[in-house]
Amino acid sequence: MKGLFNKIAQSVLIAAVTLLFLGGLATTGHAADDSLKTVEDKGTLVVATSPDYPPYEFQATVHGKSKVIGMDMDVMKKVAKDLGVKLEIKSMNFDSLLVAIQTGKADVAVGGINPTAERRQSVDFSDIYYLGGQSFLINKTDAGKYKNRSDLKGLKIGAQTGTLQYNLAKQKIPGAQVKGMDKSTDLVLALKTHKIDALGIETPSAEAYVKNDKSLAMINSGYKLDKNEVGAAIAAKKGSDALINAMNKSVATINKDNLTDQYLADAGKYMKVNTQNTTMWHYSNYFVTGVEYTLLISAVSVVIGVLLGTLLALMRFSKNKLLHGLAVAYIEFVRGTPLMVQVMFVYFGIGIIVNIPALLSGIIAVSLNSGAYVAEIIRSGIDSVAKGQTEAASSLGLSKGDTMRFVILPQAIRNIWPALGNEFISLIKESSIVSIIGVTDLIYQTNIVRADTYRGVMPIFITMLIYFVITFLLTRVLNHYEGKMKHAR
């Protein structure tokens, strides 16, 4: 009977979450076209982008501050200026850009986005503001072997997940083994370490890498494509005709005056600045910022996770079937779904109804996830306390609450301290997943440094050392208190 009740409770929880998400979609699917008015009323145009794709968008230090710049950003500055509003930039993974505008996290999205027929089914696009063409990056040592697309038959081809280049490689290179990754920096590293043989990429980005990395070369793709699908355009939520029409006026001016040539030239200047000094010390501020956010997320999530885990553990011991069932359902559901999915659901799914900032979304998701694991650790600790302790406390006249507080939990904490410590350490490392929604934690900053410096391995090595130092120091602290607990016995 208890097992049946638990299954019912879990089903109810899953159904409620699903309805919440679908309900949010329903409420946003039939709204009148107030897209332009909404932007004008709030005075900002929020643009989502993935700043790891020079020269389209990347980060650089401008007047002592890290900023997202590039051709796309100049295009959006022109659009925002013509609309009479301020430009606000939200950074996230490329494959989250269209989701961001569908769920209201951003008004528009840019990132060298090609307005393919498949994408037009989900979002609207402005007119094309730039035609860059398609190329392949290869290792310079392979330049003699790979001279055109036909030489890539049956080889391992890399492309950013969710991009036109990924689909083209699958469709137009016979026998190709296409490997997709979220970050172009990861793909370039995979190319340089011979995990892939070639990388499908926009021509301007290929040129940028070749100019800044002497170990790389490029070849033309030779694709014959519809110009209406392969150029770069601005994406907006489906039905945003008013906003699209307004932006198209700016795009028309950009195309008429060939402003993208100037935008690319400006981007090139900053790219040269980025590569003048590619030492990791020069980019130390990026790593420091990443550490600050990582520690903040981890510290807050540890506190909330312990409090929530303790509550859930006590609910599991409750004789109240409803409380017990809810605790079991929550723990099983959270432990049965990936943290990455939970982070994206909190930010994008619940964000349909309540607009939660990326940092807060990350903290909430990591905290809720940690709570489920801490609950099981605490439960096992409570179970490890001999029943005679409860009987002894009862014979002394202690209430159940006092028994749990003064007798059971203190002994349980001593028993579970090593496991709890491992959870804290794991949480610090697992919190890196929040980078997918644009939280500037250590992993996010590492990817920015890799994109800016065109150095694939060294930023990763520095990040590994930083994580090791953090976890090593935390381990020493935890061991110190574990020793004190043993001595207290």
From TrEMBL:
It is a multi-pass membrane protein. The chain crosses the membrane at residues 293-314, 345-366, 457-479. The keyword Signal applies. It is found in: Cell membrane. Residues 1-31 form the signal peptide. One of its GO terms (molecular function) is transmembrane transporter activity. One of its GO terms (biological process) is amino acid transport. PROSITE patterns: ABC_TM1. It holds the Pfam family SBP_bac_3. Belongs to the binding-protein-dependent transport system permease family. HisMQ subfamily. This is Polar amino acid ABC transporter inner membrane subunit.
